[in-house]
Amino acid sequence: MEVLTSFTFIIVAAGTMILAFAGGMVGTISVMKGQSLIGDAVGHATFPGIVVAFMLIGVKETYTLALGAVLFGVIAFLTIQMITNHSKVTLDGALALVLSSFFGLGMALMSFVQGNPDFEGTQGLNDYIFGQAAYMLRSDVYLITAASVISLFILAAFYTQIRIYIFDPVFSRTAGINNTLMNFIILVITILLISVGLKAVGAILIVNLLIAPAVIGQLWSSRFSIVLLIAGVSGAFAAFTGTYISTAGENIATGPAIILTLSLLMALSLFCAPKGIIRRSIYKRRMGGGAS
């Protein structure tokens, strides 16, 4: 109980739960659209944006670093689009190229900054690789809350159009829905959440916060609205549990604890959910028995 009432736990839990709830819902759209790996590439590509923003202002200011991450996330996506549209490189190849190139650039810039006496206060930039939610501040929570509210508001405003676009792009175009605009909206809210979530779970683990809740939601339901809700709630639950484990335990990082909790929920759902292995196996046996 002492952990639950501590100021540090409240701040970290609030930030991670809000991020995971919004990330789970937005990530579900990307997964259903078959663009989950784009989120992975963009997540890695945002890291050099953080380092460049630090190099320009000289201090680790939350909002400026997030802006740098957003900018490089957009550049990464546009690079992916350019490669796939103007070359014979497949989407998988473009994602691999952008992910490795941008993340390599970030690591190179990081090495340069840390070894340069002209830059001071570089401690903590490495946290954006693997995440360090334990050092979240009120300003980080405010930023995450603002980004999450904006993303969920946009999702709610274009809910019907996005749903139609995901399940039937041809009908969507026929119905007068701008598919390019829908794709841009999905991209914007995804990059926004990735950028503000880097400090919590890091560039490497952020994609799990987008994909795993979506998988859980789809295993438990086929209704789009219910899948979104389950994804958001499962993400928030994993964030709360992971934050509690890392706060109550010793030498347990918050980001990995959240991801491991989320992965455990996904594994349980994979076996026990209505669309899971056990339920499907029972259904097949019953159908086989009835046929015989």
From TrEMBL:
It comes from the Bacteria. The keyword Transcription regulation does not apply. InterPro entries: ABC_BtuC-like, ABC_TroCD. The chain crosses the membrane at residues 6-29, 41-59, 65-83, 95-113, 141-162, 226-245, 257-278. Coiled coil: none annotated. It is found in: Cell membrane. One of its GO terms (cellular component) is ATP-binding cassette (ABC) transporter complex. It is a multi-pass membrane protein. It holds the Pfam family ABC-3. GO terms for biological process: response to zinc ion; transmembrane transport. The keyword Transport applies. Keywords: Cell membrane, Membrane, Transmembrane, Transmembrane helix, Transport. Belongs to the ABC-3 integral membrane protein family. This is Zinc ABC transporter permease. It comes from Salinicoccus sediminis. The lineage of its organism: Bacteria, Bacillati, Bacillota, Bacilli, Bacillales.
